[in-house]
Amino acid sequence: MSAFHYQNGSLYAESVSLSDIAAEYGSPCYVYSRNYLEQRFLEYSNALEGQDHLVCYAVKANSNIAVLNVLARLGAGFDIVSVGELERVLAAGGKAERVVFSGVGKTKAEMRRALEVGILCFNVESEAELERLNEVAAELGCRAPVSIRVNPDVDAKTHPYISTGLRDNKFGIDIARAPAVYQRAASLDHLEIKGVDCHIGSQLIDTTPFLDTLERLLQLVDELAKQQIHLSHIDLGGGLGVRYRDEQAPNTGEYIAAIRRRLGDRQVKLMFEPGRSIAANAGVLLTTVEFLKLNPHKNFAVIDAAMNDMLRPSLYQAWMDLLPVTPREDVDARLYDVVGPVCETGDFLAKDRELRIESGDLLALASSGAYGFTMSSNYNSRGRVAEVMVDGDQHYLIRARETVADLMRGEALLPL
Ligand SMILES: Cc1ncc(COP(=O)(O)O)c(C=O)c1O
Ligand SMILES: N[C@@H](CCCC[NH3+])C(=O)O
């Protein structure tokens, strides 16, 4: 399955040429495939057929309301980490009762809003948060549905910055302490215990750590049952890896099947929070070569996109593929560092790439649909770029390029 392919010597998203997109909406811009998003989501829900389940797409991966709407139409739930993400889900037609709220720093105002709209569950990350949630629910005269995010101390074997399930990480509650925390939750009048959740890391290529995690969660579920605490759902989080370069990305169906085999005939709702595996390869960042700087020791291709538009290479030294939109043979292949206009040495999108390019050529940074636009910023007073959704032979502007007025919105001069 691929959203992007070459046709008549040019790169296409579904049935639309990326050159046409750039001509219409300008460069740089993000381009997403509706079909690909849908297919990746359906891989989860199809594999879960016959099992009580909910697939909560992790909004942080790509939070454009058109993306959320496409998934909401398929019955998706949503994993949020802020009230901003909650409002996006609601604006996109997502259902509050399919929302789980993760994150280590939920404010009282965020808790209040989530309780008012009636979300499915708070994924509680600390004992202090549990107490705060009980207080806020008491003020509103309701009971807050809770799951404890446990930290299973499993090594996800991924990049240290995106590994979250180890003891030293700030996320979740040590699984060894979890029974005591559930007891405390059970003793509080304004909490209702629903389930258990975890998220051990992102971009996992080997699924063994997920199975190890499930093993530990099931032991916890059994231990709690002996204490008369019954959990109705197990949420295994997100984290399934994708192919950026030559990784053998896990197959979603096989992953779910392995989890279901291990679960056997237990009566429990199974939940997941996938982000990257749904959105990453649904998108590219379209960019234009501005200048070639040729030096005897190193060549630079300066493009119009930068680290503020796509942070992953700078932040994680992530390797992302760079595809010429209209490949050419009429210029020499050279080795380039592909860099943006931002004033930082760390501003690069690709290093040491062999390319046949000229100024004015369009390039597509592959696998940019997740953690691309959502991590973009206005650094160097660069407006955030446009976002476009392709659907078959149709294309839609789903976020306008930011203007100079957008850049200064809310700022004010001093009176004197
Ligand atoms: C709590 C939680 N759930 C889900 C996700 C989504 O992860 P991924 O994009 O790797 O599927 C994340 C981010 O890593 C997360 O922190
Ligand atoms: N932003 C990261 C993933 C972090 C996951 C957030 N919990 C990336 O681009 O790979």
Condensed summary:
The chain is of the alpha/beta class. The protein folds into two domains: 4-32 and 280-408, Lyase, Ornithine Decarboxylase, Chain A, domain 1, CATH 2.40.37; 103-272, Alanine racemase (TIM Barrel), CATH 3.20.20. It is built from twelve helices and 21 strands.
Give a verbal description of the structure.
With 416 residues, this protein is α/β, with parallel strands linked by helices. It folds into two domains: 158 residues, Lyase, Ornithine Decarboxylase, Chain A, domain 1, CATH 2.40.37; 170 residues, TIM Barrel. Helices cover 28% and strands 25% of the residues. Strands 4, 14, 15, 16, 17, 18, 19, 20 and 21 form a nine-stranded mixed beta sheet that branches. Strand 17 and strand 18 form a beta hairpin. Helix 2 packs parallel to helix 9. The protein is globular. The mean pLDDT is 96. The chain binds pyridoxal-5'-phosphate and lysine. Lysine (LYS) binds next to helix 11. Keywords: Amino-acid biosynthesis, Decarboxylase, Lyase, Lysine biosynthesis, Pyridoxal phosphate.
What key phrases describe this protein's structure?
2 domains, alpha/beta, 8-stranded parallel barrel, globular, 12 helices, 416 residues, 9-stranded mixed beta sheet, binds pyridoxal-5'-phosphate, TIM Barrel, Lyase, Ornithine Decarboxylase, Chain A, domain 1, binds lysine, 28% helix, single chain
